[in-house]
Design brief:
about 210 residues, globular, mainly beta
Length: about 210
């Protein structure tokens, strides 16, 4: 069957009403990142370019378009916390995305409770059911194919402590859908949730042969 395909080269423009890139690569988990300045100012911000990149040791990362307060804080302190953004916390997460001066506290702005972490000197979101304490491993300025530096930075950190609300563990197994994570889609406002009803399972070929 021959399919009609819309093709374009990103540098020449997409020619569509909206850039489809972040709608195609999605929905994406949210990097709800808390950090702290060297003077003790708290910061909390969501990043939609986020994921887990290594298992042992666990390494997570997020990309920031622009040298923002989160990147500045992490570059100096070498620490940060990832907080799981869930459906009940969606509005608070969105509030924490506001562009405000560094001296203003996004925890207070969003009505969230900061609590101390155990291994890093960064506050965690108490209302979030999962928190990862992280130490910076790499801070990478992204480049294009020509080697030109972009105004984007990739922040990678090793997870040194994990906190999970016990109601999300059933017989010791983490229940992903029960946590109600929210995922970022395309456009200025689109998000998705997940449910157990949308789950399906596949067994890897190597496991079937074993």
């Amino acid at each position: 069957m021959t399919r009609q395909r819309y093709s374009y080269q990103p540098r020449a423009g997409h020619g569509l009403p909206h850039d489809p890139l972040n709608a195609i690569v999605g929905p994406r988990p949210i990097g709800w990142i808390s950090s702290q300045s060297t003077s003790g100012l708290r910061n909390l911000a969501p990043y939609s370019f986020f994921n887990c990149f290594n298992y042992h040791p666990p390494i997570i990362g997020f990309a920031s378009s622009g040298w923002k307060d989160s990147v500045q804080n992490i570059s100096e302190s070498k620490e940060f916390v990832w907080n799981l953004a869930t459906r009940p916390l969606a509005e608070a997460m969105n509030e924490s995305s506001a562009s405000i001066p560094p001296e203003q506290d996004e925890f207070a702005l969003a009505g969230l409770t900061p609590i101390p972490a155990s291994q890093v000197k960064v506050s965690m979101v108490a209302e979030s059911p999962v928190n990862f304490e992280c130490r910076l491993t790499q801070l990478i300025r992204l480049q294009d194919v020509h080697g030109s530096e972009l105004e984007s930075w990739l922040v990678l950190g090793e997870v040194v402590a994990i906190h999970i609300d016990e109601h999300l563990l059933e017989n010791g197994i983490y229940q992903t859908a029960k946590a109600q994570p929210i995922l970022r889609a395309g456009g200025p406002s689109a998000y998705y949730g997940i449910s157990e009803a949308s789950r399906f399972d596949l067994v890897r070929p190597d496991a079937r042969r074993g």
